[in-house]
Specification:
The structure is a single chain. This protein is mainly beta. The chain has two domains: about 1-135, no CATH class; about 135-169, no CATH class. The chain is about 10% helix and about 35% strand. It has helices at about 5-10, 25, 110-125, and strands spanning about 1-5, 15-20, 35, 40-50, 50-65, 75-90, 105, 110. Strands 2, 3, 4, 5, 6 and 7 form a six-stranded mixed sheet that branches. Strand 4 (about 40-50) and strand 5 form a beta hairpin. The radius of gyration is 23 Å and the shape is elongated. The two termini are about 40 Å apart.
Length: about 170
């Protein structure tokens, strides 16, 4: 989502407040394992600091995914602050733009969806659980052990792997 910043680029110290609602696709987060049930709400204050645009605000959204142990649906919400800088195009000479810790703007517009995307993606955990005490599924019959034990006979673990049982998540 491009935001016109020509009005605040005239003088240092000028600010502009933006409130946006973006889809997951507009933010570039539609290809994750999560199904975004809510739009990504972006609230930010853009400030001109001698030609560098500082975008400070927060993103808010909600998504659904599955528990890594029992496969039940899990709903998660995100409210994450961000504080990013945008520099004029060409300011990053000698640095690849994907390695820079700032974003570039050109034609007097910034793409606020870049900061929103990064804030959301950094907040999504690698693994989701329905609860810390989730007992998972039976490896033999597939019954959800959170709903009760099953009558399956579990084979004893290979003795060579005994040392690893302390590391089980």
């Amino acid at each position: 989502m491009l935001i016109d910043v020509r009005d605040i680029l005239k003088f240092g110290g000028l600010t502009k407040r933006v409130e946006l609602s973006l889809s997951a696709e507009e933010c570039g987060i539609g290809d994750t394992d999560c199904v975004f049930k809510e739009p990504v709400q972006v609230s930010a204050e853009l400030t001109n600091i001698n030609g560098i645009i500082r975008a400070k605000g927060f993103v808010r959204t909600g998504y659904e995914t599955f528990c890594a142990r029992c496969l039940k649906p899990v709903y998660c919400s995100i409210e994450k602050p961000f504080d990013e800088e945008y520099v004029g195009a060409g300011s990053l000479r000698g640095t690849r733009s994907d390695e820079a810790e700032v974003y570039e703007y050109s034609d007097k517009e910034i793409d606020i969806s870049l900061a929103a995307r990064d804030a959301v993606l950094l907040e999504i955990p690698i693994r989701h659980l329905c609860g810390e005490d989730c007992k998972s599924l039976c490896p033999v019959c597939g019954k959800d052990l959170n709903e009760g034990d099953c009558d399956c006979e579990l084979r004893p673990a290979d003795a060579r792997f005994e040392v690893l049982k302390d590391y089980y998540l």
